[in-house]
Amino acid sequence: MSDAVSSSIPYRRFGNRTILPGFHLSLGYTLIYVSLLVLIPMAFLVAKVFTEPFAATWAKITSDRAIASYMLSFGASGIAALINGVFGFIIAWVLVRYEFPGRRFADAVVDLPFALPTAVAGISLAVLYGKNGTFGEWVHWAVGPEAWRAGWATANSNIGVTIALTFIGLPFVVRTLQPVLEDLSTDIEEAAACLGATRWQTFWRIIVPAILPAWLTGMTLAFGRAVGEFGSVIFIASGVIGRGEITPLVIYTTLEEGLYSQAAALGAVMLVFSFLILVVVSLLQAWNGRVTGSASV
Amino acid sequence: MKFRALSLSPLRRAVAVIAAGLIAVSSASVVTPACAAEEPDQILNASFDVARELYGDFSTAFSKHYKATAGKDVKVNLSFGGSSKQAKSILEGMQADVATMNQETDIATLADKDYVAKNWRTRLPDNAAPMTSTIAILVRKGNPKGIKDWADLVKPGVELVIPNPKTSGNGRYTYLAAWAYTLRSPGGDEAKAQAFVTTLFNNVVVLDIGGRGATTSFITKGQGDALLSFENELLLITKKTNPGQYEIVYPSVSILAELPVSVVDTVVDARGSRKLATAYVEYLWSPEGQRIAASHYYRPRNKEIAEENKELFASIPLVSVDDVFGGWPKAFKTHFGDGGLFDQVYKKK
Amino acid sequence: MATSATTLEPAPPQEAPRRRRIPRKATTEPLWVRLLLITIAVGFIAGFLLMPLFIIFKESLLKGIRVYYDALENPHAVSAIKLTLLTAAIVVPLNTLFGVAAAWAISRFSFPGKRALVTLIDLPLWVSPIVAGLMFVILFGRQGLLNSLFWSGGKQVFPILFEPAGIVIATLFVTFPFVARILIPLMQAQGSAEEEAALTLGARGWQTFVYITLPKIKWGLFYGIILCNARAIGEFGAVSAVSGHIQGLTNTIPLHIELMYNSSQMEAAFALASILSMLALLTLVLKSFFGWQAERQAKEALESTP
């Protein structure tokens, strides 16, 4: 993304030789700020992990409880990302292509999960999907108490966690797809139609390949955010192993137990994962840049 | 040349800007009154999750009492959280003058690291615990599942809400009470106790981090058939917040929960607040303090005040951690330590 | 430039003639498909996004307006609101300054490790808030590796951990990418031709920045600030780890909401939540407006410098 632009500006070694001022000031400030706020704290988190015997740390991050929580965190985030992939696409498509009353309002509301504080979303979802809540009551009535108990509960359960993670991830998919869909020229679709393609064929052969990188990027972003999510999910999660206990909650519980170095070890696992997500996202964005031929971030 | 000369100083300017930023950040905290230098008129009490109402009321009463006796306006700040987390926060530097916990180990941790004098348990009366409680069972009105004792809780289809023993005192006492119940049953031994507790925790649907969270799950979210928590928390529900909707079931045997308190010596010495903090802690044993405890459904130590409130608290046999488990340090290590028995009991289904 | 603005500005009128030009619907779906998709989209937004918002206002007013006001007038709630506002007032300017500096360095100059720096700036968005908070507890804690630096005589040298400053620092971490992330692509798209021209004509560095750059990035800057502010006010996980949860001193609004919620004081929790929700709605309105303006600026830049 930065290459596309920097190539339009003549390459300069270390910013000298340019008439633009402020290179040392701005870069120096940036580097000091990033070091103080990100690098140093992270380094100490990792250092904390290694102050303990490695065997104990390893036992903690590979314990049944930890592994069950990774599976739930990744599983629920994955399912949430897929749900968002489907509905996010429909919403983005409808917002870009169709005209209907309230479109602008709907467009603005999509960002609600970004704007709403996580704790606020958390208590609201917990009430809404709890056994006594509007939606929870419906589901409880629809599936019956037995099935509710067996795992169909919408609160304090894996389903509840998935619902909360879907809530926070939606804008990522919609907001990454929207600009790509807007830039998609209808000329190719027209041409396809002229050549006798059905609308469905046009969709699969023309539209999907063009938006696929952005689609995957959006879903990866939603996934990455969901894995680390804390505030909106803990109120609807539960501490029961394998039933609503996500990794951030295990970290929180471990913190509450006062076992800081174990919490740090689990935190380090999450950090490694955050890096992986970042790498995948930047690869996807590079692909997206090639497909759409534009420098988008 | 001119550019080079200019371009170096901005780096220093950047450093200056950062420094200014950090000063701004730290000065934000200086304006708060938490770090008054001498003769502090504020103290901080770090307490456990469900003690909010008790220590809220007690602190107001103490401020009034202190004004009347010492002629000084004081403010007690309160922090609530999981008992063990509060202890750990104090270790990490939370400036709590007083620690009011729900089990001995949380203050013992502080004593181990010399934050609290080693003799903390004997320098105050009653093992430094001005009040006690026990674990009881809360069921929905009419007791639809017919729960009468511990044995009824392990039946298939009974759903339980218990605070997490890893993070909360209520959870630990519940676990130990169930364990003690099996030991006392005919033919009960350690193996049977472990099997019983395993079945018990298999019936748990929500394992909340703190006691109050468990209450919210049971009452507000309607989860589970029975809530196991401190007697005072359950009485608060049946007497005050939701009268007539729930019933308390006392099991045939339960556990004596001593709720210890201490002044945090390192903090009061550093802040110069020992006099005030000690007065606060000792006031818990005064008739006024004991009455406040009873009014929040904690069992008072004071005999007369206990007698006044005797219809409130069912008299059932209570075993102590010292008698059955050889004291808290041992019980904690065997059961709740990392890789302890609870970790074996509580596994993924 | 003026012409490109007029062709780009009104989005809906542009779509109308396009549809009239193709009455055959070769590039759209049958009516029933369109209706179905619109229904699904609107239904999903209403049920999944608007319903939780509605519940907040409903629950907060369940016991009447009196209880609602009482909850907001509670001294602990008031001090939580004050602390949250103070935090945002410190964090937002600092991160705005950082965002502008980082965007300037990254979009205007080439240097080795630029990509790594951009990645690093993005990282806080993907770090779990609870891990972020934990990092600072470990860094500043008395049992930490740096205890000799931050602690002396049982007291903190600078009161950070379990004090408001800790909350500020944790919030600083979780919100610092927002302004930079918005400005970097915007400034890259705009290029530096105008700044270079101004400098060649004899303008000073700061003049160039204030009169040329700032107006160009204005809307993007506002957009970033709004996002940064929303997150700063609403941050929960990171702040929860570094706060001592001392009522009236180190509880922010979200922490106070959690406390009220877990104290079975639902109305109080939701009353404060409704305040934050109104703020979120205001954020949405401003965000839509600023975002639209910023997009226009970026597009203008792309059009004018092909």
Short description:
Chain A is mainly alpha-helical and 297 residues long. Chain A has helices spanning 2-6, 23-50, 54-61, 64-97, 103-109, 112-115, 118-129, 134-152, 158-183, 186-194, 199-228, 231-234, 247-256, 260-292.
Q: Mean pLDDT of chain C, nearest integer?
A: 85
Major β-sheet annotation of chain C = 2 strands, antiparallel
Number of strands of chain A: 0
Overall tally of domains of chain A: 2
**Beta-strand content estimate of chain A:** under 5%
Q: pLDDT below 50 for ≥5 consecutive residues: which ranges of chain A?
A: 1-16
Gross CATH architecture of the largest domain in chain A: Orthogonal Bundle
CATH fold group of the largest domain in chain A: MetI-like fold
Percent helix among the residues of chain A? over 70%
Strand fraction band of chain C? under 5%
User: What's the domain count of chain C?
Assistant: 2
Contiguous runs where pLDDT drops below 50 for at least 5 residues of chain C:
1-24
What is the radius of gyration of chain A computed over CA atoms, rounded to a whole number of angstroms? 23 Å
Distance between the termini of chain C: 12 Å
CA gyration radius of chain C, whole angstroms: 24 Å
The CATH topology of the largest domain in chain C corresponds to: MetI-like fold
